Amino acid sequence: MISELRAATVAVADLERSCSFYQDVFAYTRLAEAEVSGHAAELLWQMPPGLTGRTAVLGPAGAATGLLRLVEFDAPGEPYWGDYARAQDYGLYALNIRVGDIHDAVARLRAAGGRSKSEPSYWTAAADLSAWDSLSYDPDGTVLDVFQLEPAAGSPLAGYDGRPSALQTVAVHVSDARASADFYAALGYVELYDKLVEDMESFFRLPPGTGLRNINMYVPDSPATGRLEMAQYVGFPGVQQRGRAVPPQLGILSVSLATDDLAATAALVTGLGGTPVCPAVELDLPPYGHVLARSFFGPDGEVLEFHQPR
């Protein structure tokens, strides 16, 4: 069995600055801390030999999934998305966090050192799901999709206590949303919605006439957190970022999923066309402790890290 997205690994320039940002804006707490070094970590995370790092895992108090794994490496890096001048390229793109009051959250984000990309806009994703959505940047330029949801009664996302959420979704830019959705469906994910978003070029900063095919998927046991969002810019093709999305470059490097059988998962992923990043390695992986882990490239070069407890 394969889990929802348990964590997203994000490389940052200054670990303490980034921890303070997410604590101030979203009331996250530090759930684990560790040093990152050694051959196993180098293989799993595509780290150059000898590179080391410090990591802190953040999320709402008591959270066990949808976590944010921040890592500062001991060599400088640059945001691998640059200034998003090529937003159409493919790879892990944004962290989506739900809040109770979007205007208050965006104000706190700006005060804590983030900056806005697009002001809150209202749109309908499905018959039972609408949202006030905004795009912002954290201190290192990673895109944050901060949103206030309006689900109808009976929606899988209806239950919410009003606090800033764990990572509800990690967005990946893809070349073919349907093909990517089929890949993740084979891993056990199901669709929350599939929508073509039009007439929002100004919000997404896209060329006139570009549509957004958006497929949001979740694991049935975890509809609220750890979802995947496939975003395809229709008529605006790009190229994979996988050669740039490596340490010590800054940005979303990978997403982490749990499995109860790593060998079976590896066979499944490769059978679906996923490409191995490394052989299986044993290491201490915060916040999960000692695990057997292996990484793969997904359909558009996004790195999927699977771990099995030992």
From TrEMBL:
Q: Which InterPro entries match?
A: Glyas_Bleomycin-R_OHBP_Dase, Glyas_Fos-R_dOase_dom, VOC_core
Q: Which PROSITE patterns match?
A: VOC
Cite a single Pfam family from the UniProt record: Glyoxalase
VOC domain location is: 4-149, 166-309
**What is the recorded name of this protein?**
VOC domain-containing protein
Which species? Actinocorallia libanotica
Q: What is the lineage of its organism?
A: Bacteria, Bacillati, Actinomycetota, Actinomycetes, Streptosporangiales
